[in-house]
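Sat 14:20. Reprocessing the chain from the morning session after the first attempt stalled halfway. Input below, unchanged.
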Amino acid sequence: MGARMEKSNRRIALIGFAILMVGLGISDSLRGIFSGIFQTHFALTAKGLSTIIAVSYAGNLCFLLAGGRIMDKIDRKKAFLGFLAVWMCAMLVFLLTDNYYALLVGMFLAMGASTLLNTSITLITPFIFATSPAMIVNVLFFMQGFGTSGGQSLIGNLADDFGGWEAVTGGLFEWTENHVGNRIVLAFLIILKLQIPDSGEVKKAEKDRQGRKMKGNYLWIVMVVIFGVYFIAEHGMLNWFVIYGTNALGLEQGKAANYMALFFGGMTVGRLVFSPLVDRLKVFPSIALFSVISAVLYAAGIFSGALWMLSL
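Finished this time. Tokens:
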């Protein structure tokens, strides 16, 4: 691939991935924002509401188990576009139906496909942006965080009924009588032009980069535990924070959504601001430092009801 073509390919990748990450950020934030509205619209008990959350993460698990094998067996670009098509179908299910069970199907597909798209972008980026992969990954996840935090603040303050859910889903597709899917389809068409190394090339490059196998290395167990607990904390906030603020603390939905937007806004900024500190302290000391700080603030916020501590 010539230098000019490589530069063009990087530009296409950055634009397409950035558009997609903003859309994924908005989409992933919707469950928590609309949880109270779902409960009212479908007359759900707490069990019915928690089923929405459980089904979405079941999609996460199932897609991750199958997605890795798919990406190993077929061309990475085809796999990526397939995951994106599944996510688009989930958005259409949300837009075109008003049924609790259809909502569950959409949540299963949306969360599963969203997770695989995030994973695919993380895996593909180093082979397109070989000179600065970490910076590009940070920028892309900053864009996702921008979509998550911005969506939570804006949507949380404007949406007050099920019509808001339909409007937001339609907004992702820019639904009108004349055209459907401008934003999401634009990302699809941009990525369609992208040149991505096939699975054989990527597998060889990954093997060369790793240098040695992980087998026998106990640190992966530590990382699984750390990531698992972190995932519970972050997604507990994402899915339950608004309804906790409104039902348990008596806040207006907009105010509760603003606190959650502040939480994810802090994560978004922190990914960029604290990167130099992580480089200086190294990975495990950084994990220890931030874990202690966040655990203290998280526990203090829960037990005192001071939501600013949770957000911080």
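Residues 175-181 have pLDDT under 50 and may be disordered.
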